[in-house]
C-alpha cells in the first residue's frame, strides 16, 4: 500500500483532528494533575467511565454523553472523600475506581455483555469518532486554554505551594473543584482516542516527558502538548499502516518519547561525570 | 492600632486540645517574638490567624476583612512538587499575586520589583535556577523575597532561620529590622532561640498550649508568669537576652503533648 494513501480518506482527517484536540486538553490538564500528584485521578475516573458507558448501552442512549455526568459526579465525590481526614487520598481514588469497574461490569452484563461497541470504549476507536464528538473535543480544548490562561498564575501558585496561594487570597477550593470537574469531562471525551484502559496514560505520560526537559512552567505545557500531538499523528499513521489497534500505538509512541528523553538525559549525565 | 485581636481561641485536632483560650492583641509597628517548646501550638495559632485552619472557637479580628494584599507569610516548611519547573525568579514574582485582581498580568514594573527584591534578600545570583534545585538556605532567601515583595503591613514568619547559617541569620534579621523601623512593618516571628531574637523583638508571647505571657520586652523581663514558667532557667534567659550568644528554648520544659500522653 502507498504509505500516504490513508490521507486520501476523509475519516482519517476527522480522526486526526479529533485526536489532536484530545491531545491538547489532556496534556495541558495532565501537567497540573501530575505535579499535584493527582495523576491517578485520571485512572479512577476512567474506570468510573466504564459504569457510565455501560449505562449508556443499557438505556440505548449515547454512551459517551451518559458517561459525562456520571464521571463528573464521581469527581465531586472524590473531592469530598479526599477531604475526609479518615481516608488517604490515594485510597479514596482506589475505592472509587473499584466501584466504577464493579458496577460497570454488572451493568455491561445486563446490557447484553461485551460486544464490539463496548470493546471500542475499552480500547479506543479514534477512527470512528463522530462529528458531534469532534465538536465536543473542540469545545473542551478551547475551554482548557481559557481556564489555564485565566487562572494561570493561581494554578501555578497552588501547584507550588497551596498554603501560600490561600494566604495570597486565591480561592483554592473553587479552582481545585473547577480543575477536577473539568478533568473529568476531558477524560470521558479522551476515551474515544485510547479507551478506558489507557486514557490515564494520555494524562500522565506527555507531562512526565515534558517535565524532564523543560526549565519553565510555560515550556512544560508547550512540550507536553507537542509530545501528545505528535504521538496522535504518528499513532494513527502507524496503526493504519501496520493494521494495529490505534489507542495502543498512540500510547506506545508517547512512552517511546518519554524513554528516549530519559535515555538521552542519562547518557548526558554520564558524560558530564566522566 | 491593633492589627490582630484574638479572644479565647481554642483548637483541637481530632479531639486533642492543642490551644486553650488564647487571647492577645498585636499592635501595629511591633516586632513580636512568639516562643514556646515544640508542639506548643505556635504554628497552629498562626494558621488560624491566616485562615489556613478553620476557627473552632473564640473570636479573631484582623485589621481588615481581606488582608491578603497586606500580608506576608513565610511558612516553617514548604514541600513543592519535586519536579516543579519554576525558577527562583518566578517564585518571587508569585508574591505579587495578592496585589492583582481579575485577569492577572505582570508588567515590566513588576519584573523590576521582583529583581530588586531578590537583590535585597541576596538571591539575585541564582534567579534563573530552578527553585527545587537550590539549597535549603537559598530557598529560604527566595521565599523571604516572595514574602516581602508586596510590602506587607504584617509579616508572619514561622521559624524562618533554621536553614540559614549564622551570617545569613544576622542579615536576615537586620533586613527585617530595617523594615520594622523604617516602614513600621509589624512582625510576628516564631522562634526557638530566645536570645537571638532578644536583640530585635519589642514584644514577647510565650505559648504552651495556653498563653503563658504576652507583653513588651520589659514586662517579659520582670514577669512573674515568665519566671514561674521557666523556673531555674529564667536567670539564664535574662542573662542571654541582651547578649549575642544563642539561648535555645529550654529543653527540660516539656510540651503538653508529652505531658498528656504520659498522664494516660
Ligand atoms: N494536622 C494535624 N493533625 C493532628 N495533629 C496536629 C496537626 N498539626 C499539628 N498537630 C499537633 O498539634 C500540636 C501543636 O502543633 P504545632 O502547632 O505545629 O506546634 P509548634 O508549631 O509549636 O511546634 C502538636 O502536638 C502536633 O502534633
Ligand atoms: Mg511549628
Mean pLDDT of chain A: 92
Low-confidence stretches of chain B: 256-264
Helical region count of chain A? Answer: 12
Q: Strand pairing plus helix content of chain B: what structural class?
A: alpha/beta
Estimate the global geometry of chain A from the Cα principal axes. Answer: globular
| Unreliable stretches of chain A | none
- Associated small molecules: adenosine-5'-diphosphate, magnesium ion
Measured as a percent range, the helix fraction of chain B is: 25-40%
Please list the strands of the largest sheet of chain B in the order they lie side by side. 5-6-7-3-8-9
Strand fraction band of chain B?
A: 15-25%
Rg of chain A, rounded, reads 19 Å
Largest sheet of chain A: none
Whole-number mean pLDDT of chain B: 90
| Biggest chain-to-chain interface with counts | A-B, 28 and 31 residues
The helical percent of chain A reads over 70%
- Biggest sheet architecture of chain B: 6 strands, mixed
Distance, first to last CA of chain A: 48 Å
**Morphology of chain B:** globular
Quaternary structure state of the chains depicted: heterodimer
β-strand number of chain A: 0
State the separation between the terminal residues of chain B, measured CA to CA: 44 Å
Structure description:
The complex is a heterodimer of chains A (274) and B (264). The longest helix of chain A is centred in the last third of the chain and has 28 residues, at 246-273. Chain A is mostly helical. Chain A has helices at residues 10-35, 39-58, 63-83, 89-110, 116-123, 131-150, 152-160, 162-167, 172-194, 199-213, 217-242, 246-273. The N and C termini of chain B lie far apart (44 Å). The longest helix of chain B has 17 residues, at 166-182. With 264 residues, chain B is an alpha/beta fold. The relative contact order of chain B is 0.17. Classes of the chains: A mainly alpha (274), B alpha/beta (264). The interface between A and B is medium-sized, with 28 and 31 residues. Bound molecules: adenosine-5'-diphosphate and magnesium ion (MG).
